[in-house]
Amino acid sequence: MDTQFLVSLSIILATFALYIGIALYNKAKATSDFYVAGRGVPPVFNGMAIGADWMSAASFIGMAGTIMLLGYDGLAYIMGWTGGYLLLTFLLAPQLRKYGRYTVPEFIGDRFDSHTARVLAAVCTIIISFTYSIGQLSGSGVVIGRLFEIDAKLGTMIGVVLIAFYAAFGGMKGITWTQVAQYIVLIIAYLIPVIFMSLQLTNNPLPWLSYGELVGKMGELDRELGISQYFAPFTNGTKWQFLALMFTLMCGTAGLPHVIVRFYTVSTMKAARWSGAWALLFIGLLYFSAPAYAAFSRFILMTKVAGSKITELPAWTKSWIDTGKLQMADNNGDGVLQWSELIISNDIVVMATPEIANLGVFVIGLVAAGAMAAALSTAGGLMISISSSFAHDIFYRVWKPNSTEKTRLAVARWSIVIATLLAGLIALNPPGAITQIVAWAFALATGTFFPALVLGVWWKRSNAQGVIAGLLVGLAVTLGYIFAAKYGGFTILGIIDTGAGVFGAAAAFLANIVVSLATPAPSQKLQEEVLDLRYPEQMVYKDGSVWMNDDATKSI
Amino acid sequence: MKKIDKAVADQYFREKNTYMVLYLVIWFCVSFGAVLLAEPLSNFSIGGFPFHYFMGAQGSVLTFIILLFVNAKVGDQIDKKYGIDEAKNIKLSEGKTLDH
Asked: Does the keyword Transmembrane helix apply (chain A) (predicted)?
């Protein structure tokens, strides 16, 4: 029991108490509240909630480390995970808001008037959110593993219990305001170490301006070591892989069910527009800082750790070697640790850097609390998506339409517990780094929901047969490519598993369009509902013309 | 309920879409465009950053944020121009979900 452990644990417990307090205050009572918090969260706060929902263990724990190890090539994550918000806010969010349904499968089921499409969409939601949650659990394993100085596997098991309990008893109503709190905790926890490191290394409190010179300096250090320069483009993959990954992350952003559902919590299309803008501003704060975090970490490791004597390594190294995520070996036996002899996992860079830079127990504890906030908030949103897909879209809408609210709530809670346990089981031996696992979830969303939703909103001719074909083909191609690339070594233009969404989306768009055109057009009513999405709430498309609802009566 | 001239309704939709296409063109240039031209851009530098790195890490994200706020603001103005009243929108979308 050292001071660090006590400080970290108390900060984490204090923030948990805050979240639980807020959740209890807004305790979910009715089912409608459990899914979508009573419609009417103001855009600024909804923006923060989207930010917390969005910024998961992948953004908080994984991203800076990925950028540190990949250099310029890692920036595909920065551009991809921010640029997708434009697609979402322009092409989908306001329109889906006007359509007004509880969940994404519900939109697909009603828009295409097909139970098959509804169930298929629910299954896709479950697959995507499940994959995503494996990354979150594996992230919480890193944090808890470090905290108790135990293997990350044991940490993951503790995380599973925490998240299952947290999501099953929260519900969306608690979650909106809890997520606002989580956003604030995680952004403070991320910015403080970056600002401190910036002061330490460059005497400039603004890391966003100061790390440019370090990037250049590291290029020189790399040249001396004879390795490729930090900022040199396409050293870890082809240009096509970079573009494919970026495309996948962008379209996946626009197709992720747990993010889209956040736009059902605002009141109008206008509010959806503003929510998207605020969300990206809040998210951008962390994304601007991640490359700075990466640059500072790498600079410190290169100049302060590499080159030290192997017998005189600082104390922080031991606790990280215990988690199994850091390796240092004096391979050439000269008694000095070289840069090439240091193997650091993507997933511990953010957590370990405050210790490396000696930022003090309080900052280290704060980062641990921020990482837990990121993993918990996203896992919460994901679990709500899984449970609503199962309990609402499959169980209630298709399977047992006569079930009572109480039964549905119980089914929702049990599906959360079971999904968390299963995801936890896989996370014990994570099949990749956190960012990579999460990128697969994005590839799946790109290959399934992005084409289905874009065509569903923008093309009235798209019909049930088309969307079913699109979802099936997109899912098969994306999954097939991920497995073929990861385990079979199959690639096209050097595009690896994380860029699989490009092929999935292309195949799904094609299948949807071809099958839709080859089968009868949807009914007049469905087509009019699609045309209605072109206009704000007050303008209504009906019987071939547009009406202005001046007295705001809900006659339709 | 008052019928709107088809031309006016179409004009509303077209105006919104024109702006959207413009934003998406800029979006494409700062992200995909900057990556495609990464090698030539790396010969320039800005604030110590090689330019391609700056675009990837900061330039593109900043542009995205600005575009979203411009879109929100311009969207409001278009709505105003066509006499859309947000208070009525809020009233109309209240409880607009399936009854269950």
From this structure: yes
Question: Using the beta-carbon criterion (under 8 Å), do A102 and B97 form an inter-chain contact?
Answer: yes
| Residue B92 resides in a domain | no
What's the fold here for domain A3-308+348-431?
Answer: Sodium/glucose cotransporter (1.20.1730)
Interface contacts A/B by beta carbons within 8 Å:
196
Q: Does A240 touch chain B (CB under 8 A)?
A: no
Residue B74, domain extent: 6-78
DSSP one-letter string for A108-130: HHHHTT-HHHHHHHHHHHHHHHH
B65 CA: distance to closest CA in chain A (Å): 6
- Give the other-Cβ count within 10 Å of A270's Cβ: 22
- Predicted TM-score of the model (pTM): 0.90
Test the B interface: residue of A111, A298, A395, A537 with most B CBs within 10 Å: A537
Question: Domain count of chain B?
Answer: 1
Q: Tens digit of pLDDT for each residue in A428-461?
A: 888 888 888 889 999 999 999 999 999 999 999 9
Which of these, B38, B87, B50, lies nearest to A270 by C-alpha position?
A: B87
CB contact A246 to B (< 8 Å) = yes
- Give a yes or no: residue B89 inside a domain: no
From the list A72, A284, A552, which residue is nearest B56 (CB)? A72
Residue B100 lies in a domain: no
Cα separations in angstroms, A326 against A256, A345, A351: 33, 6, 12
Residues of B in contact with A286 (CB under 8 A): none
pLDDT tens digits along A272-301: 999 999 999 999 999 999 999 999 989 888
8 Å CB contact of B60 and A79:
yes
| Rounded-to-integer distance, Cα B73 and Cα B79, Å | 10
Q: Which two tokens stand for residue A106?
A: 């519900």
Interface of A with B in 105-124 (CB under 8 A): 106, 110
Percent of chain A with pLDDT over 70: 95
pLDDT at A37 over 70: no
User: What secondary structure letter does DSSP report for A233?
Assistant: T
Reported as a pLDDT band with limits 50, 70 and 90, residue B97 is: very low
- Say whether pLDDT at A60 is over 80: yes
Question: Could you tell me which residues are beta bridge partners of residue A541?
Answer: A546
The nearest CA of chain A is from the CA of B98 a distance in Å of 7
Hey, are the CB atoms on A98 and B3 less than 8 Å from each other?
Answer: no
Note whether residue B86 is domain-resident: no
Condensed to tens digits (0 to 9), the pLDDT of residues A125-138 reads 999 999 999 988 88
Residue in B closest to A546 by C-alpha: B4
> What distance in Å separates the CA atoms of residue A335 and residue A447, rounded to the nearest whole number?
51
Give A146-172 pLDDT, tens digit per residue: 888 788 888 888 888 888 877 777 655
Residue A28 token pair: 């979910």
